[in-house]
């Protein structure tokens, strides 16, 4: 996710302080992982330097002065351009899971156990996300659906790899040490 573009998009509804931007971001996108204040202010500093936002006002506060940021025309154009561009599909051709299986086979470790452990972790997270989806609002449901579809694909891959483990061991030179046991 482009945090800068998300913050710019939030500014389109009107000027906001960094604190307000963080709260709006967390509310809209932060399910499971809120944005740190330092990240908000570092991003706003970069957007300011690039002419995508401007400081509309500065107010004294109990601590540091509070800047109110507004999006510029260039910022609005940048968000529009970003929204129109399709995201590059991630083919996951060199995943960490695949690397671990191959390394287990190459080093004579039990790849089947690795697959079983990973499957259990995927199933645990699937149950957790399914509960969250049932209790969540529409945004939570959509986020959980996205994650669940990826987990389902990973689980299918884990099953397929387990079924082909002996063949893979021969291909990568594991001499059968990493198969089914």
Automatic annotation (TrEMBL):
<feature type="domain" description="Transcription regulator PadR N-terminal">
    <location>
        <begin position="7"/>
        <end position="79"/>
    </location>
</feature>
<dbReference type="InterPro" id="IPR036388">
    <property type="entry name" value="WH-like_DNA-bd_sf"/>
</dbReference>
<protein>
    <submittedName>
        <fullName>PadR family transcriptional regulator</fullName>
    </submittedName>
</protein>
<dbReference type="Pfam" id="PF03551">
    <property type="entry name" value="PadR"/>
</dbReference>
<dbReference type="InterPro" id="IPR036390">
    <property type="entry name" value="WH_DNA-bd_sf"/>
</dbReference>
<dbReference type="InterPro" id="IPR005149">
    <property type="entry name" value="Tscrpt_reg_PadR_N"/>
</dbReference>
């Amino acid at each position: 996710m482009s945090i800068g573009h998300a913050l710019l998009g939030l500014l389109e509804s009107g000027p906001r302080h960094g604190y307000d931007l963080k709260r709006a971001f967390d509310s809209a996108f932060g399910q499971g992982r809120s944005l740190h204040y330092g990240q908000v202010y570092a991003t706003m500093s970069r957007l300011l330097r690039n002419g995508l936002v401007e400081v509309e006002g500065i107010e004294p506060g109990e601590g540091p002065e509070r800047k109110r940021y507004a999006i510029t025309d260039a910022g609005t154009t940048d968000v529009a351009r970003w929204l129109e561009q399709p995201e590059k599909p991630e083919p996951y051709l060199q995943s960490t899971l695949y690397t671990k299986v191959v390394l287990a086979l190459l080093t004579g470790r039990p790849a089947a156990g690795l697959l079983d452990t990973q499957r259990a972790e995927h199933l645990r997270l699937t149950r957790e996300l399914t509960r969250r989806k049932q209790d969540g609002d529409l945004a939570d449901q959509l986020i959980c659906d996205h994650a669940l579809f990826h987990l389902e694909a990973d689980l299918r891959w884990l099953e397929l790899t387990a079924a082909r483990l002996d063949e893979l061991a021969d291909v990568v030179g594991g001499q059968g040490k990493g198969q089914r046991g």
